[in-house]
Amino acid sequence: xxxxxxxxxxxxxxxxxxxxxxxxxxxxxxxxxxxxxxxxxxxxxxxxxxxxxxxxxxxxxxxxxxxxxxxxxxxxx
Length: 77
Ligand SMILES: [Zn+2]
Known about the structure:
The chain has one helix and four strands. The protein is an alpha+beta fold. It has a domain of 41 residues. The strands form two sheets. Strands 1-2 form a two-stranded antiparallel ribbon. A two-stranded antiparallel ribbon has the order 3-4. It is rod-shaped, with a radius of gyration of 24 Å. About 8% of the residues have low confidence. Bound molecules: zinc ion. Zinc ion binds next to loops.
């Protein structure tokens, strides 16, 4: 049994099956015959991993505001 993975062709966008052993090798698209490096979907230079700080939970900001207020009231009172 041979193992395959699927990848969208960067040229024509169609999904093609690539033998897993060809991962990282140059392969030809079965549809448009474009040549590109085989790699599983989700591993793309275009997509950068977003650091956690960027996808911050807005609820945490509210919590910080509430804590800040509490500090102020303590300082006043
Ligand atoms: Zn193609």
